[in-house]
Request: fold
Amino acid sequence: MIKVGIVGATGYTGVELLRLLVRHPGVQVAVITSRAEAGMAVADMYPSLRGFLDLTFTEPDVDALSACDIVFFATPHGVAQNLVPALMQRNVRIIDISADFRLRDTDLWEQWYGQTHGCPELVAEAVYGLPETNREQIRSARLVACPGCYPTAAQLALLPLVESNLVDNSNLIINAASGATGAGRQAKVDNLLTEISDSFKAYAANGHRHLPEIEQGLRERQPEGAEPAQVTFVPHLLPIIRGIQATVYARALDVDALPDLQALYAQRYAQEPFVDVLPAGEHPQTRTVKGSNTCRIAIFRPQQRDTLVVMSVIDNLTKGASGQAVQNMNIMCGFDETAGLDLVPILP
Amino acid sequence: MIKVGIVGATGYTGVELLRLLVRHPGVQVAVITSRAEAGMAVADMYPSLRGFLDLTFTEPDVDALSACDIVFFATPHGVAQNLVPALMQRNVRIIDISADFRLRDTDLWEQWYGQTHGCPELVAEAVYGLPETNREQIRSARLVACPGCYPTAAQLALLPLVESNLVDNSNLIINAASGATGAGRQAKVDNLLTEISDSFKAYAANGHRHLPEIEQGLRERQPEGAEPAQVTFVPHLLPIIRGIQATVYARALDVDALPDLQALYAQRYAQEPFVDVLPAGEHPQTRTVKGSNTCRIAIFRPQQRDTLVVMSVIDNLTKGASGQAVQNMNIMCGFDETAGLDLVPILP
Amino acid sequence: MIKVGIVGATGYTGVELLRLLVRHPGVQVAVITSRAEAGMAVADMYPSLRGFLDLTFTEPDVDALSACDIVFFATPHGVAQNLVPALMQRNVRIIDISADFRLRDTDLWEQWYGQTHGCPELVAEAVYGLPETNREQIRSARLVACPGCYPTAAQLALLPLVESNLVDNSNLIINAASGATGAGRQAKVDNLLTEISDSFKAYAANGHRHLPEIEQGLRERQPEGAEPAQVTFVPHLLPIIRGIQATVYARALDVDALPDLQALYAQRYAQEPFVDVLPAGEHPQTRTVKGSNTCRIAIFRPQQRDTLVVMSVIDNLTKGASGQAVQNMNIMCGFDETAGLDLVPILP
Amino acid sequence: MIKVGIVGATGYTGVELLRLLVRHPGVQVAVITSRAEAGMAVADMYPSLRGFLDLTFTEPDVDALSACDIVFFATPHGVAQNLVPALMQRNVRIIDISADFRLRDTDLWEQWYGQTHGCPELVAEAVYGLPETNREQIRSARLVACPGCYPTAAQLALLPLVESNLVDNSNLIINAASGATGAGRQAKVDNLLTEISDSFKAYAANGHRHLPEIEQGLRERQPEGAEPAQVTFVPHLLPIIRGIQATVYARALDVDALPDLQALYAQRYAQEPFVDVLPAGEHPQTRTVKGSNTCRIAIFRPQQRDTLVVMSVIDNLTKGASGQAVQNMNIMCGFDETAGLDLVPILP
Reply:
């Protein structure tokens, strides 16, 4: 039994992390902090946890958190970078679900996030927590930066093509759509049911913070000499609670040299416990992964032309955030990688 | 490890039962029948089960089903009554999620269901599978008739008042609302998203089949001499997938003699693993039980007048159908009553 | 052409009022005020109005508003009462969509709204703007207090029974459910799509501000000597944008003396342009009134017992607020009562 | 006053057409046919029309329809082609909302629609009813083929770029998403609320019937010598009732030679009553066109790279079907083009 702490568990990634951890066989949740809600029982904020958890939010406190083996950060960006160094000094291992340590280029981070990075010295050590590419590094990592939700869906869709250098990297198009939990649990008019249900829209077409993360992730997996991945990324807002779909368009460099794409995807993910390549011709649906850590993927070559279409779906709160964080914890701690994550999606 | 079979698993109660059983520690799902889909892999119909279940629908067959310890019926009414006798003769225990054996009065059944009952001789033996009232009888039952979804919510809301004879039984009002899975997985225009989303309506106000079941259930729990429960029951259709709320109105017989209602409810359900009485003043929400077997209840006495209001919420597919069926199985087979049912609701 | 002004048009009743008024043949919208958004083009806040309206929000200003024949208040309660006296002194007629002048008993108002009333001297003059009961008084009114959304649905459902003294007034039960626009356009976590979609709940069971308004409205229509109406009112929140359903339960005083209820309702509303009594046995649906000023009503007597059930549906923003306000304006100004309100509901 | 008939008004395009026509100042709806529902009052099927329409469905009958000036077909494909010749012989003008006469190449039609065309001799005469490209031809047309919903959104998004030959036509990507009314009012499990709400998916990625229509429409507008438009089109299903968004990606042929794109779009549509080019940087939302005939468009050039992104939104039942049909009728009959179409979108 390891002890874990969670900083900032009042948001949706926090409650999702608790949903997973309270049933994890190797974990005891010891500390849950929230500056705003200190003193409140967690189950009073989230009645879904009544009977499963008997903890109270406490003020973030380095001493209390240092008694944990692992501390998760389920905070907005900008918070983890200030607390992480003190905890790592006391040998706590960190799994950061926020964006603080995802980009290796601190200048780029500061440009996209509009603030000075509080802990640039740890950026190089941080391991990008996408097990499908970095499993071995994660195993021994002291600090794991969990991928964003869109980057998880987008990279899993594109990796087999990019790793094999089969497509024109200069023009990768990622059309993605996310459920409203992607915007967090913030009191904003824009996220009211009355504003976004029975409707659909794109947003941030001129530039979303997940764009540089996706490009970084793809570029690190390209074979040497390949043209660096350049992505057009347009996110859309779905009137659903959970779920992301990425629909990705890439142009084959040489249609005559294309391998069997279905086999390429099947082989690439054959050993991955949380990536499911659908039978040829099947379209994924977000509801088939609701509440689970699975990513389902399908690849198409419409009209046998040269534009390939790949679709991936994940639950943005699970594989896109807290589930992937637990998967990383399992790898770091030597648990079975699926421990606590054997979740049958809720359908219907 | 017991072996279980499921007759008619193509509907929503079927896939929900599978979601629960594939992770149940004491159960092996051995047979899944569907006349219409025989030969199809179950996971091809329900992609949420990909990786969890490697079975194929087969034709209903008494021999194959007889090799099971327990057979669940997740069929429309009228099916179980024809297959059950042959299976019981071969010592298979039956858990019927359909309506076939819920009403003790066969005439009443035939009147409400508009057909002749195919197996009246087993009606008397059937145990009504509401563990909160019939746990001991369920333990040794050969045939359990699982309650309907509305009757589960309505009875759990009213039982403490009715058992204590505190309210005017001649005028119990049950205003209930259900998610659309309550109507099953049938190709009907009335259940299209385009017909029922962003809308609300009552239906069957002149009489719904769950009315006699609710009255029967309440009357069996009334103290001797009490006026027989008479219910006005109006169901409504919610544009949601899962969830039922019953809002129940009952008039106190004697307001001056009312006990502490919050304490009454808390005590009545103190030992029940799946009934959660909310703190005074809290309103239940269906989302706090989504995907779980829990019923949450709250009691109010508005304006300190003589009309009491009780609200209960359940997931209609879980506590209202397949979860309760598994709870019954656990009791029948001597498993821990919560085995396979330690489900944290998915919230948000 | 009359000139109208709107105070506080940034909320949902404001934009709904504009949707109706920009197409009204007898009206010119001259002034739209908003303290918070002064200087912003109205169509920038509500792109649905692009091309229909070329006005800018201005600071509330008595001089500017006094140039109008009619001023609507689409403000939270507590605002109109401070501005109305100055405007009335300048002979502006007022249609208040807020709650400020609905209750004749100022003490009751102060108790339910938790503040001192700023203009008690005008309360007696205010006409309650339910045309189906007060048409003649509205015609010459200087100050009309538009009914709340729930009270509109509830009173229209109950009036024929109460006016004829057919039911036990001591125990009227109003179970109502509203779309989320009922909560307004406020940045609150409770109203996020992620909190309320795919879910259902009751709220304010211990007392909602519309309760005294409903009781007042019913009591004013009772025949002399009848027991004063006493209401149990439980509102619920629907995961839809627009629409209210009231499902009302009332016990017949004497079942043997009941008239033909279908005929009673049909006759009561035969001359009402915005009340539609459905054919016997039909259940209303909120979607059949979406975007329109119509109230549809159905009456049932389940099992031929003594509890009657009446259902009414309205669009809470139209007949429940801004549409009714326009209907009142039409009556006050001598327009055809349906002018600008010949709205075919949007279905599907 | 002209007389119009509607063949096949039981579907969603039919009821939408009625919503528009019953308030059209120059039209009398004289005949509404439905083989399946002959004898039923239209308002009994669509209660939203109660009080607006007093007609009954009749069997399709050439004599009765021939008394009309205009007959609309709101039928599935394959129906109009069999009735149209007889009606045109009697000088009835036809507006076909179905797909029967959209493709000029009958072989292509037969390949995509999987059946023999019943009336190839009229295909050449049919005018493609997109007023933004074909207004003059529509004026005198005897047979107008209304565009599909996706093709309307896609072409309006792409026309300014394609007409000016600014982008690489060999690789136009149309990622589109539609509300569920796009699938019609058919009793299919796939369209149940329980199957598609709170979820998202792509469909028909390998080829959708609107693909050849989009390519045909674009190619007819290209300047001579331009490479023929080749489209990758992936439709997605939104859990909403009405609305389509097309998000279109096209690569600039020469970024240095690009004109001011915002101005290009503004000028192209300056005279169009139903196309609204949003201010630079604004993203369209489907809800801002709900129930209206407007298409809103926005153009982006993310990161100032060479991939352009254009978004368009329409109400698929209005501008995407029945509203556009009425717009065509207005042009054909010399009415004001906006007659009966001055619809303020319902927001929220």
Notes: The radius of gyration of chain A is 20 Å. The domain at 2-125 of chain A is CATH 3.40.50.720 (Rossmann fold). Chain A touches chain B through 37 residues (CB under 8 Å).
